[in-house]
Write a structure and sequence with these properties.
By secondary structure, this protein is an all-beta fold. 3% of the residues lie in helices and 64% in strands. The protein contains 1 helix and 7 strands.
């Protein structure tokens, strides 16, 4: 079935990935918000969704950060995060900042990491107390 491109009004297939005339991605769709996948629960706690999962990039190639009580994605911020780059109270990630972090690289109150800095306690290969590094201990 043929549709018109939302950008240039050229006739395109409904399943076209790019418009052959102007190059618009997914030209048969009325609205297009980017590449990837995103889910945001309708249940909220305060202003944050209970669950936000985002593996998505906007049309300008900027990543969509998962922000929620539970945030899962390449980039995430929330109370509990599972991500590549995360900021949260409880954080499981490759690069993490939070109170309790399990990560390859961590900055935390308490952490388990390959490389990390901590305030209270930490374990791992190259994990050091911030107070020791600053000479306050």
């Amino acid at each position: 079935m043929m549709k018109t491109c939302r950008e240039c009004n050229h006739q395109v297939s409904e399943s076209a990935i790019f418009c052959p005339n102007c190059g618009a991605p997914y030209p048969g769709q009325k609205h297009w918000t980017g590449w990837g996948w995103e889910y945001k629960s309708t249940t909220t706690i305060g202003t944050l969704p209970l669950l936000h999962i985002s593996f998505k990039y906007r049309p300008n190639r900027m990543p969509v950060v998962a922000k929620g009580v539970i945030a899962i994605g390449q980039f995430a911020a929330g109370m509990i995060t599972i991500s590549q780059f995360g900021v949260g109270i409880i954080n499981l990630s490759q690069f993490g900042i939070g109170l309790y972090v399990v990560a390859q690289f961590a900055l935390a109150y308490s952490c388990i990491a390959q490389f990390g800095l901590y305030l209270e306690q930490g374990w791992g290969q190259f994990v050091r107390s911030i107070t020791q590094i600053l000479g306050l201990n």
